[in-house]
Amino acid sequence: MSSHTQPATAFRQAAADGYSLGGFCWRHAQPDPLRPLVIINAATSVRCRYYSRFADYLFAQGFDVLTYDYRGIGESRPASLRGFQASWSDWGRLDFEAMLAHAATHYPGQPVDVVGHSFGGCAVGLAASAGRVRRVVMVGAQFAYWRDYAADQRWRLFGKWHVVMPLLTRTFGYFPGKRLGWMEDTPAGVVHDWTTRTPRYEQRPSGRALARLPFSQVKAATLAISLTDDPFGTVAATERLLGYLPPAQRRHLRIAPVDISVEEIGHFAFFHDRFRESLWPIALQWLQQGQLLAGGPGQVVG
Predict the structure, then answer these.
(1) Using N-to-C axis directions, what is the helix angle for 188-195 and 165-172, rounded to 10°?
(2) Could you tell me if 223 and 286 are in contact, meaning their C-beta atoms sit under 8 angstroms apart?
(3) Does 207 score more than 50 pLDDT?
(4) pLDDT, tens digit (0-9, with 9 covering 90-100), for 254-263
(5) Residue 206 burial (10 A CB sphere; 0-12, 13-18, 19+)
(6) In angstroms, what CA-CA distances link 3 with 6, 55, 62, 283?
C-alpha cells in the first residue's frame, strides 16, 4: 500500500447474506460529520489495491476513503473459485450495498460519495440504498455490451471476452484470468453476466418495471468520464448507462489523450499516479463541489 499520507487500515464487512468482504480504509483521526466518505468501486476483477494511490490522494484532500474487493476477488476471495457463486448483480446488490451499510454504521451522518471504475459505475445503481449517495464519479463505466465496443476493436474484443473467456470458464469452473495476465481470476457467474448479450438489468425496461430497479433510487450528481482511446467506454456505452439517470443530474465528460499531452490513457490508466496533476483534479472538483473543473481537459457530451 502507498504510504505518503498514512497507512491504510484493513477492515472486513459482512454482506446481507453473511459473506465476509475485505477492504481498506483511510480515515482521519478526528471524526467530522461534515467530512465526505468516498467509496471506490473497482472494475471487474481488478483488486482494490490498484486504487491505493488514488485513495491516498483523496485522503490528503480531506476525504475519508474506503476501497474493497467484491466477493471472489482479492481480499474477498474464497479458498477455491471452482463452483463459487457470484454475479455482477451480487457485486452491486450485496457487496456495494454492504459498503453503504458499513458507512452508515462506522461513518454516521457523513456524506457518501462514490468513484466507480468500469463495472463499479454500474454497481452504484444495483444497490437498494443507492439513494444515500451524494455524488458519483464514473470512469469508463459501462455494461460491457459487445455492440458498444469501439468499432475498430469490436471483433477482437468479442473473441477475447465473449468466446475465449467463457470457454475457459467452462473448463476450469471459473475464469483463470491471472495466469493469462488478463485480470484477476473471476467467478463463473460474473463471466456469464459479462458474456450474456443483455444482462438482466440491461434490458432497459420502461415504466413501472424501470421504476422497480435500484437505478431509480440514484439521486446523486453524477459525472461520467470517458476516454477516447478506451475501447469499452465509448460514447454509446457510456450513454447507455447514463440513460438510467435523469438528465438533470448527469454530465458526460469525454477526454482525449491529446487533451493532456499524452499518447494514451485507455480503460485503466486514469488511476495511475502519473495523472495526479492532470486527471485526478477533475474527479476531485466534482466530489468537492459537484462541478466540472474550470478550464479542465475534455469536452462535455450531450
Answers:
(1) 150
(2) yes
(3) no
(4) 999 999 999 9
(5) exposed
(6) 5, 11, 16, 21
